[in-house]
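Budget justification note: compute hours in this period were largely spent on complex prediction jobs such as the one shown. Inputs:
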Amino acid sequence: MAEGRTPLWEVFVRARNGLAHKHVGSVHAADAAMALQAARDVYTRRGEGLSLWVVPSNAIVASDPSDRGMLFEPTGSKIYRHPTFYEVPEDVGHM
Amino acid sequence: MYSQALNTKDTAAADASPDADRFQARIDAEERIEPNDWMPEAYRRTLIRQISQHAHSEVVGMLPEGNWITRAPSLRRKAALLAKVQDEGGHGLYLYSAAETLGVSREELTDQLLSGRAKYSSIFNYPTLSWADIGTIGWLVDGAAIMNQIPLCRCSFGPYARAMIRVCREESFHQRQGYEIMLTLCRGTPEQKAMAQDALNRWWWPCLMMFGPPDTESAHSDTSMRWKIKRFTNDALRQKFVDATVPQGQFLGLTFPDPELRLDEASGHWQFGTIDWDEFRRVLAGNGPCNRDRLTARQKAHAEGAWVRDAALAHAAKQQRKAA
Ligand SMILES: [Fe+2]
Ligand SMILES: [Fe+2]
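Corresponding output:
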């Protein structure tokens, strides 16, 4: 095939106002305007969203799964970051 | 639709590394595997093959139904069929997108389909001869697809499972619109009912083949089950489909083209006759009634769309140069 590759875009949909945009998948498109059009056709055929983001896939920087322990495990021992760590007498009421 | 166990042989290397053990432990604990996670090469290969075959099936599956869009008997039916075919295109795209997370490019996948190297569900190599075929496809083919796809929503590979959840949400409309067509025909004139019966006669056995070869012959069912890509065997899903479908056909007042079909009171299951696996293999090998038509149609669509893709890329490059 002589043709060039059509870039890949990640698609995010906001289901309704008040919710964050959520990743739903990807589309191929030559430019941003066409990516939005394709995302609309592919991912919102039944009122799934009110707003779309498309982001060039190669612009996303992801953490390495093998760093998961290093990055996320230390918080497991920091129980003092949670409200239940602190003792408040019941008489004080809800806090 | 339409994932089908196609029985292509794959040497699922029994990886015996600490990584492989950890991987299997995660699967056993019902953890989902995400694209950047470590995975055995055979798991990656199996998924790329299965997801892309599934995607190709959705895309080729647009052809037999697309054949009737311009001849739908009313505007209501036309709008519904158009929306269904559009959905199938969407399913193909969700699935290609999931396959690409495994490191294969869209161009490669498209090329595999167009060059005839990739397989797709055998069911789409049968012709749609009358309007009743559209009803039958919705009712039976999408019905079989739903049976296949619901367990895939819990597949161990995250992107595939998520794509399946979207797909399953949309399939139920497909099946209901098909059944409604059948019901209308069966309550219509004797000619219309005969048309419905003729369609059922032609589609019933190919639909049973959609679940893939019997468990005794299915080459990689075991590995797929261990990896939780597959949750039920081909035969188990086929039986579920028959049990669900026979009463629906009886409600329509149609007869199934299987003299051996009977309810086994003890098990509560419908027993059915022997499937012609030679036919299945023939169609899969490229010698079904429409294999060549389907492939030619896809090749033609791709070739005739080339100038659009080229123009879009040229335009994007020009805009970028202007902005720079
Ligand atoms: Fe589908
Ligand atoms: Fe469908």
